[in-house]
């Protein structure tokens, strides 16, 4: 692993630890960035524990900065306290630095979109373009939300503390959103390699911690099941040549069947609670995909109907149209997409292109593929779409 790999794998953990030690998000971020700059100069080879090295260096740089830049007694006392106590005692039910920071950033005083954008930046180390892709929004809008969220935390004195147990359920929805979006960015990265295994693994780890913390919350179990069942298919997503392989064409023997069994068990636990929610239904859809030698599309469509009733979003409508195509044919699916709007989301024109191909409308399909290729940010996905597009020019 090179320094860039260490940054991707350790940034969120280091920032979370420094926020606990410093009580200041901006100072924590600056200290971690300073530490990585020092590492760039000093590391010839990776130290045995790169994350611990970064945290120690960042902590020391923060202490130096507090002493150098402030004459107020409170700041000096804070620096002295940091110098004397490496690990302040933790209180409350959340004992994982990163999970606690997620709950802190998801304080109800912050706007919902600002909460998740800020947390994805801090915990996942996601850059603004990656977060903007997750939200299907302009980068400038996301950047402004992050700045405003930090300012709100500072100006209103939102405490860096563990929420009490009775507060946890109210903080849950944005926390689930953060973990879901973190995993999605890892599973289909905005740029670079298609898959960022570090983000996928961290999202699953935090989802497991959350399930331990809140074992009676069915949506928590549903999210964990969804992540596990999706992760289980990862070994078959790329061919030996590194080309994208769609679900119907994947070699199911390559799937992680231990994760599938765990995910199915979690889905059954959710069903017994009979409190359906969006993450549970998405997990159930993925359970159908991973049950048996082929997907039961009738069952998938029925689940998407239920999901659309609970969460009528454009992305849900798009995914439902894929199931409609398998059950009722591409013409009805294409009609379902007619008025759908998802600006900047390449999977909408890519899906439309596939349906047009199946209907024999090659010229329209080519235009849709061109649109999808222009929107796709990941080179693996672009290469897949270019291959599909080129196939239209070859004689049958």
What share of residues are in beta strands? under 5%
Structural category: mainly alpha
Main beta sheet, described?
none
Number of helices: 19
Q: Let me know the average pLDDT.
A: 87
Task: Determine Rg (CA atoms, Å).
Answer: 23 Å
Given as residue ranges, the uncertain stretches (5+ residues, pLDDT < 50) are 83-92
Name the quaternary structure. Answer: single chain
- What is the name of the CATH architecture of the domain at 1-89? Orthogonal Bundle
CATH class of the domain at 1-89: Mainly Alpha
Number of strands: 0
The percent of residues in helical segments reads 55-70%
N-to-C order of helices and strands:
HHHHHHHHHHHHHHHHHHH
CATH topology grouping of the domain at 1-89:
Rna Polymerase Sigma Factor, Chain: A
Task: Tell me, briefly, the overall form.
Answer: globular
Measured distance between first and last alpha carbons: 46 Å
GO molecular function: DNA binding; sigma factor activity
Domain RNA polymerase sigma-70 region: 7-70
Domain RNA polymerase sigma factor 70 region 4 type: 102-153
Domain DUF6596: 171-270
Characterise the protein shown here.
With 396 residues, this protein is an all-alpha fold. Among the domains are: 1-89, Rna Polymerase Sigma Factor, Chain: A; 312-391, Serine Threonine Protein Phosphatase 5, Tetratricopeptide repeat. Helix content is 69%, strand content 0%. It is built from 19 helices and no strands. Helix 1 (3-22) packs across helix 3 (50-69) and helix 12 (257-273) packs across helix 13. The radius of gyration is 23 Å and the shape is globular. Residues 83-92 have low confidence and may be disordered.
């Amino acid at each position: 692993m090179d320094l860039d790999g260490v940054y991707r794998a350790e940034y969120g953990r280091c920032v979370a630890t420094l926020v606990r030690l410093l009580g200041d998000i901006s100072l924590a971020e600056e200290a971690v960035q300073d530490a990585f700059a020092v590492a760039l100069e000093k590391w010839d080879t990776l130290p045995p524990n790169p994350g611990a090295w970064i945290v120690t260096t960042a902590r020391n740089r923060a202490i130096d900065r507090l002493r150098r830049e402030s004459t107020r007694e409170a700041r000096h006392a804070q620096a002295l306290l940091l110098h004397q106590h490496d690990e302040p005692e933790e209180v409350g039910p959340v004992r994982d630095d990163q999970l606690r920071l997620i709950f802190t950033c998801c304080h109800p005083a912050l706007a919902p979109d600002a909460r998740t954008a800020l947390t994805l930046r801090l915990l996942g180390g996601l850059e603004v373009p990656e977060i903007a892709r997750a939200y299907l929004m302009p980068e400038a809008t996301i950047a402004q939300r992050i700045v405003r969220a930090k300012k709100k935390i500072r100006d209103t004195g939102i405490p860096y503390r563990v929420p009490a147990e009775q507060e946890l359920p109210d903080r849950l929805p944005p926390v689930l959103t953060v973990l879901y979006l973190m995993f999605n960015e890892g599973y289909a990265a905005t740029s670079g390699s298609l898959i960022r295994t570090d983000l996928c693994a961290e999202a699953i780890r935090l989802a497991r911690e959350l399930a331990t913390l809140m074992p009676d919350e069915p949506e928590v179990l549903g999210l964990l099941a969804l992540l596990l069942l999706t992760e289980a298919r990862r070994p078959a997503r790329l061919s030996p040549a590194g080309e994208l392989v769609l679900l119907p064409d994947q070699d199911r023997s390559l799937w992680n069947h231990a994760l599938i069994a765990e995910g199915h068990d979690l889905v059954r636990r959710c069903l017994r609670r009979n409190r359906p929610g969006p993450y549970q239904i998405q997990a159930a859809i993925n359970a159908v995909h991973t049950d048996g030698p082929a997907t039961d599309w009738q069952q998938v469509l029925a689940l998407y109907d239920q999901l659309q009733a609970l969460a009528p979003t454009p992305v849900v409508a798009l995914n439902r149209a894929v199931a409609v195509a398998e059950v009722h044919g591409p013409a009805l699916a294409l009609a379902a997409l007619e008025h759908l709007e998802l600006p900047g989301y390449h999977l909408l024109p890519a899906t439309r292109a596939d349906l047009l191909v199946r209907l024999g409308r090659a010229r329209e399909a080519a235009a849709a593929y061109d649109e999808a290729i222009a929107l796709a940010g990941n080179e693996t996905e672009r290469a897949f779409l270019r291959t599909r597009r080129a196939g239209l020019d070859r004689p049958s």
